[in-house]
């Protein structure tokens, strides 16, 4: 079950728009039908094949539908039916994709923390808690909390902390790992009792795997001070099978929505000719947009960490999230509204908070762009990401703030491929520093950065300006500096900036 208001809001992200509404938006919807020969009845009618809105409305009236979805012909609704909402579907939206989304929303109706393919996991947790006589928590494969019961019988501090943090704390996970709980979940469908430990605020747990075939989808945890009686163990095992079914259905719905969203985002990033239409289908505003490119990894795994980041980036229904994301190659790309880079910073901070502490997240943010410029914005974001991967620390680089560093990084990449000048003033001064323990390269850089001001250069080097003057005279005996030539000064500044990381001669021992 879902309300009309929510159906309108969610479908707005899929290219479906409300054209007429004469029924309260609080109306509850419980069934979906597609027009076909014969007698059909349902709250939502998908008018596949209707020649125009008039025919679709006639079908809906016959089916006693509250909502009718009809292909948008660009013409106004021919009539304004009473007690009915008419929603028009963009020509680019396929009926099969839309039908899957509508069926999932109306028939499954309730949203969980996983955000996609809403299920009645909370209601199931309540029913299971009544059957087994203890507080129930349903967790995903990575110990994230998906749902929990209202019952607080035998509840302990460990359960409260797990629910509040939306995942099992690391210290509890370590205890369960040490006691073989996760190994048992991976190998067995039988419930397992975990004895309590006051040091960890743990009363005791009965835990069982939620599995579909051989695949572990999650687990069900019951708070109890001692092992459950046989009849309640059987009820717990049966409940775990129901949980597995719900999780499997939820994942199928999530995969479908993510696929639709990813395909549209990738079309934008590849320079789609109909970019404005695609942005509208994604329910993004026609205001400046930014592209965020990110990678995630742990010490021993890159792929799982990236998938987890993508899952978190796409948590929640599309209309409830500011950005739209896609997974492509070894990176996640997100298109985010906002001319101000601070919005991207807040989005990355929220994502970082939602990920495990041991996971490393690196990202880059493009400059503001229109829908038609998103392909170029993607390249900007990728270059900013590459810069962050070099730095490894600090905030994610933003293109309009870090374009100079990105330019130098491009030149450094070229230099690392062996295209570094082996002769010329900078190379010859570096060689002299290596062989004679002088500080000529450092002096040249200070003089260039001070734009020829000897006093300023001396302050940078912490020496008297006469020392700078003396060094410059000696440097001129080593190589032809050409400091009176503006082009040569520019070339030397670029070479120094590019090759700094490739040489240790600037700071001789």
TrEMBL record:
The PucR C-terminal helix-turn-helix domain, residue ranges: 441-497
Domain CdaR GGDEF-like: from-to ranges: 287-386
Q: Which Pfam families match?
A: GGDEF_2 (PF17853), HTH_30 (PF13556)
Question: Which family does the record assign?
Answer: Belongs to the CdaR family.
Q: What is this protein called?
A: PucR family transcriptional regulator
